[in-house]
Amino acid sequence: MNFPVSLSVVLTRHELCKDFDTSNTMGILTCSEGWNLHGSKCYKLDTEMRNFTNSKKFCKNLNAEMIMPKTAEENSVLPKIGEWFWIGLIDHNKTITLNWTWNDGAKLESSDRWANGEPNDDDSPEECIISGPTGWADVPCTGNKTTVCQKKPDIIADEDESVTLTCDVKYKEDITKLFWTRSIDDTSVIVSEYAKGGNVTLPSLVFEHVKWTDEGLYKCHVTTISGLTLTDETSLFINATNMCPCTCEYRRKLEYWGSKIIPNRTKEELLKELESELQKIKKELAVNKTQLSSSIRRRTSAPDKRKSSETMGLAGAAFICIVVGVVVLVDLLSLVKFVKSTITSWNFKKIGEKAKDKKRKIIDINKRKTQTSESSA
């Protein structure tokens, strides 16, 4: 059985960042996909035919409850949803004297919503109720009708608004224990220190100035004098886009470990309990000294994406290119000059050798002529 919890948003807005727009913005109620918002609740019509008991189970599996139009406003919504569907109202006593009771245990207080001639108990026993085009009608619970489920919408509020989560408790004298919890990513954490109430004396959970860190899934837990435990839940989302929120996760970690610590523990007991986590953190923070120099080099050579740095880098690269180009050009000219001088020297040497060979040949010819003349004489 779900416990009835209603939520209201008190719309007040206070200045947080003077550089941003602080005009009044209304909180938003929103429904999940497949659900329709009417008034202050989300409704879902399922056209599959079920008896009263199975319809009740169907809604419970959706973390919701069968529709219970207790107010005139909620009853006016019924024609917008459909016709001939179950209402979460039943005569639990099963006697001739009608004792209509809502599924959450509250008694029916108004009798002006019945269709003409209803309830009539024609097909006795007619202990369940359906919604028709002209009003309510009593019918046997074993019949098959369509199902309408209801649940509270999620709340989207701007940071620094005043938000009140109200536990709409019936028969408050039967409540022995009441408290709220908040969950983030399936992890239960402590309720915000900025919230007031949330107990048997003051069931409502009040945020005078809601913060982005108050976002989460809230549950109101109630224990009755008979030992029955009842819960209901809703999600609170905080729109902090224009309110300069902190983006770090430090607060989340504090909340997580705060929810894990058992009160009245000594420092030694806490250290022992957190030993495994402390060792894990120590290991993550440890520095490998053998790779320290390479780590420093990597940090030193890390890219700088600032625009001024990119401009300076391009200018430096252009200067280096010019210098290198001049050096290469000078070297090239020197190389050409060296090659030309080498070729010239080689040509002179070759001409000298030819002159010597020619002179040597002339001498040899003259010598042979002289020898020939002497021989003839």
From TrEMBL:
The record's annotation in InterPro entries points to: C-type_lectin-like, C-type_lectin-like/link_sf, C-type_lectin/snaclec_domain, C-type_lectin_CS, CTDL_fold, Ig-like_dom, Ig-like_dom_sf, Ig-like_fold
Residues forming the Ig-like domain are 140-231
Superkingdom is Eukaryota
Any transmembrane segments, and where?
312-336
Q: Which SUPFAM superfamilies match?
A: C-type lectin-like, Immunoglobulin
Which keywords label this protein?
Coiled coil, Disulfide bond, Membrane, Transmembrane, Transmembrane helix
In this chain the C-type lectin domain maps to 38-150
- Cross-referenced SMART domains: CLECT, IG
Coiled-coil spans are 264-291
- Alphabetized PANTHER family for the sequence: MANNOSE, PHOSPHOLIPASE, LECTIN RECEPTOR RELATED (PTHR22803)
Under which name does UniProt file this protein? Uncharacterized protein
Which species does this protein come from? Mytilus edulis (Blue mussel)
